[in-house]
Amino acid sequence: MRGVNPVSWRRLGQGLFFISPWILGFICLKIYPLSSSLYYSLTHYDILTAPKWTGFDNYIALTKDRLFWQSLYNTLYYAVLAVPLSIVVALALAMVLNTRIRGLAIFRTLFYMPSIVPAVAASILWLWIFDAKVGLLNLALGQVGIVGPGWLTNETWAKPALILMSLWASGSSMVIFLAGLQGIPQQYYEAASVDGAGRIRQFWHVTIPLLTPTLFFTLVTGLIGSVQYFTQAYIMTNGGPVNSTLMYALYLFNNAFRYFRMGYASAMAWILFLIVLAATLLLFRTSRRWVHYEGDVR
Amino acid sequence: MKAMSDNVAVPGRAAYAVRKVVAVEWLTAKGIPYLLAIGGGLLFTLPFIWMVSTALKPDDQIFANPPIWMPRELMWENFVRAVNAFPFWVWLRNTLVVAGSTTMMTVLSSSFVAYGFARIAWPGRDMVFWLVLATMMIPYQVIMIPLFIVFKNIGWVNSLKPLIVPAIFGAPFYIFLLRQFFLTIPQELSEAARIDGASELRIYAGIILPLAGPALTTVAIFQFLNAWSDFVTPLIYLSESRLFTLALGLKNFQSQWTTDWSAVMAGSTIMTLPVIVIFLALQKYFIKGVVMSGIKG
Amino acid sequence: MKRRDFLKHAGLLVAGAALGSGAGILSGCTTPAARPGGSKGPVDITYWHRGGGPAADVMKDLQNMFNESQSQVRVTIEMIPPEGVGINQKLLSAVSAGTPPDCAYLDRGGMLSSWAVRGALVPLDSYADADKVTEQSYYAYTWDQVRNDGKLYGLPLEANPITLLFWRKDMFEKAGLDPDKVPATMDELDVMVEKLYKKSNDNTYDVIGFVPWFKTGFMVPIGNSFGAQWYDRASQKVLGNGPNNVRALDWMASYAKKYGIETLSRTTQAFGGAGQDPFITGQVAMITGHVSTIANMKRYGPDVKYGVGMLPVPAGGRKSIYMAGESAVIPKGSKHPDEAWQFIKWLTSGEAIKKWCVSMGYFPAHTEVSKDPVFADSPEKQQVISFMEHGTTNTPMPVGDFYWTKLQEAVDFTLHSKKTAQQALDDAVRETQERLEATLKGQ
Fold first, then answer.
1. How many angstroms separate the Cα of C163 from the Cα of each of B26, B209, C136, C267, C389?
2. Of A175, B175, B182, B208, which has the most beta carbons under 10 Å away?
3. What does pLDDT average to over chain B?
4. Above 80 in pLDDT, residue B256?
5. Chain B contact probe: residue of A116, A186, A284 with most B CBs at under 10 A
6. How far is A131 from chain C (nearest CA, A)?
7. Given its phi and psi angles, is residue C350 left (phi above 0), alpha (psi -120 to 50 degrees) or beta?
């Protein structure tokens, strides 16, 4: 492409030298596992005896496995609700904090803190909060005369409960949104209000377009986070009641490390990889239509 | 208190100096946000308070309805009981070994790689950098099984090594963060050093690293907390109780002491408290890191 | 010039990486198995046992007892906490990684035969013959469970009845029932239970009379009372959906319908309070429980008046008490199988197993030790011993763990009215059969 002169050769050497840890890691931690997982997915492998080639048996078996479909559904349900909801909550909180109220730092701290609580500790805490009889949530509902459901023991409520819990940790997106909001020049709003735009119009025509890069970022990371949703489900419900919180990652884990069906679990892993790949590509594709980078607007 | 904030004039609104309008404006611009911020802040904080308060309650107050927020007497014994019920100090030591060593290694390797992406212009660099970003999209579950098989084959299962060694390769997210930071350091600094005959390695170690203190701190905190909280990797690799990290240990403690809520909450508090303290002490690095990660996803 | 520069850098990097991983290895790895055997001193071996808490303390004592009793072998006992996925998985991964302990516990009913089938265990027949350890040494059914295809793979540790019926005499009296009368049939039980339930005003129960699936009320033990069959070893057929199995599950589900599965789970979720058993706190009037419940009652509820009995007999069923326990095995890849044998033989007999069982409230599988008066030191225990002639177990099979999980899943489906008992068991049996065939083919 560019002129291949001695200087760029030397730079190439230096560059590759510096990124060599990453290259090694890329090969050992990404390329090799990805390709060998494809191989394992075509075998029967219980880790005690050598892998045995079975072609597409695992994939065919998966299409008939009701738990596979159930776990896929559960994860989609979670992703489709938790990701947008946490964006809404994060954005709302960020907007509240962007009104130049006093004690911004304190509020930001309060909203952000839950997102760094270790997942195990958070799960145990919410297990306690969700308890049907003595949990904080139902005691509070009881105060206003509502008999709360058995959040984690009722199959209709278990997934919403996990989503509710995930909203508690939306503080990190809030910080990003807040930075985005603070980066919007005040002139834009002033110009809009001179044009006679009210608060709501300003929100839709100034705030949102200028925040689209941030929205896009939280959407992508949220999606990738939610397909990996594991720890909370593992600790709080272990997939129950009646498999209503059997998340994809949990079922994959069970197959791999509980039943040692490494081939079967690898097939699940590859399907997950393809799903994430497709979803991300789709998001990036459509992003051209709705994500505006700096200077694009107006 | 509210009167004070009342005095803060809303900019560009002097034209509507009618009292009533001002009052309405104040309400929408300040009053409602305050209400929401305080309400939301309370909502977000309550679970913490509930955790700590349960951890300090005597048995007979745990199930009280309506709930008791302030225990009659503070039962510090609950913490003692939790710590004595399991090999807490061993687990803490393991956690610190993993978190400490991975933090050191990750900071070193990630900054090294980031230097290659930010400070040397080599052909194809930006394309490779996109590849770095793209690998962040690969879910752990996809590579988990082959990695386990590799570690099993080299006999590292049931040791802390699988938790530590991968850190020598650097992590894409930290490489990204550090690259962004390195880009903000004026190139002239490097050029001047190069003219003086300094090697890239010297520029990295002697000029860039010393200037990157805040960014390195950010990465160090992130990695430390990640390792502190990590549950999945210990779950997969560790068998013997003496090797457990706190995260795995706490889960284990909870499944054996299910109904001893005050002790279990004390355990959760012990696990959470250091995180909160680190966060409060180093907050600005945190926020900077999170904000940086959001710019230009 | 440039090349040399590059090489220098590369050298530094390699050194750095080596240093990094070296630090990791130093700090991370302290596997005792790495210690050399040594020609003079005692041979070091490792034994993995399950659990933590009180079990760890007892095992610590046993470790000292063994190490002081002789000077050839020095054992280190490591506790493997049950971390949720099932406790034997960790051992399996250690075996497959080629770094197993020299000897370990293993669940007799669910896991041993599936491990034996895959060649993960060392056969012990030659050791047993040499040391005259015979089937007379242990209860017959426990001996049966540690054998596969005519070979011996482990030594039984405990013989624990796990489906005893415990009832609160004081609560019986309050409900107007005869506190000394055990329900003899399932129908009788169902009627008695009705009187024990007490509804609360917040859509839960203040008192639960009895829930068949609570505590140790698993599908297999309950099924055994109904005369259910589970597996035919000769034809390798999974049988769990026969009429008796379905009747058992239907009976369990009748409680879910009658008392409301939703209300029941709301209540049971909240059970407890400071490590207390809901039976001790009086939230449940009657439970099916493990024999160690007796020891727990003595420790945590010494004032509670309770009775011990067997599960009532359903119409057309049989008297049955489900027996469970672990075994000690030597995994493939054990570095010191001879010394390991010496240890597990010691651990499963004599003073060692006596101490273990007495401390934990268990019964030993070793016939001679089980005759020790210490195991009949209370009327309750004497009663339990008299029940043991009705002991039943599951039938060991190559995918026992999977099967058990599927059966519990079937219970879950039926209780929540997602499937009928027949459908749920049909599905469980079909999936287990498929899995079984895949496993048998896979070797």
1. 69, 66, 25, 22, 14
2. B175
3. 85
4. no
5. A116
6. 6
7. left
Kindly state the DSSP code that residue B208 receives in the 8-state scheme: I
Q: SS3 of C437, please?
A: helix
Chain B contact present for C84, CB below 8 A = yes
The helix (H) or strand (E) run that includes residue A193 is helix A186-194
Q: A251: number of CA atoms within 13 Å, CB side?
A: 25
Please give the model's pTM, rounded to 2 decimal places.
0.85
Mean pLDDT, to the nearest integer, of A37-66? Answer: 91
Q: Provide, as residue numbers in chain C, all residues whose Cβ is less than 8 Å from the Cβ of A55.
A: none
Residue C76: closest CA among C108, C28, C43: C43
- Average pLDDT for residues A181-210, to the nearest whole number? 86
| 8 A C-beta contact, residue A37 and residue A266 | yes
The number of helix segments (H) and strand segments (E) in chain B equals 18, 0
Nearest one of B228, B123, B229, B216 to B170, comparing CA atoms: B216
Residue that has been written with the tokens 């960014």 in this structure: B215
Distance (Å, whole) CA A184 – CA A179? 9
Measured between alpha carbons, how far is residue A37 from residues A31, A266, B147, C3 in Å? Answer: 10, 6, 9, 38
Letter for the amino acid at B239? S
CA distance B164 to B101: 7
Nearest CA in chain A to C95: A48
Which of left, alpha, beta for A247 (phi over 0: left; psi -120 to 50: alpha)?
beta
Q: Which residues pair with C74 in a beta bridge?
A: C44
Q: With contact defined as beta carbons under 8 Å apart, do C195 and C175 qualify?
A: yes
The amino acid at residue B60 is D
Indicate the helix (H) or strand (E) that contains C307.
strand C306-310
Rounded Cα distance between C82 and C397, Å, is 22
- Nearest neighbour of C271 by CB, restricted to B105, B155, B259: B259
Q: Which of C5, C113, C265 to mutate to test the interface with A (most CBs of A within 10 A)?
A: C265
Please give the Cα distance from C119 to C106 (Å, whole number): 14
Q: How many residues does chain A have?
A: 298
Phi, psi for A44 (deg, rounded to 5): -100, 120
**Phi, psi of C427, deg, nearest 5:** -60, -45
- pLDDT band for C337, please (50, 70, 90 cuts): very high
| Residue where the block lists tokens 């559904």 | A73
- Eight-class DSSP state of C157: -
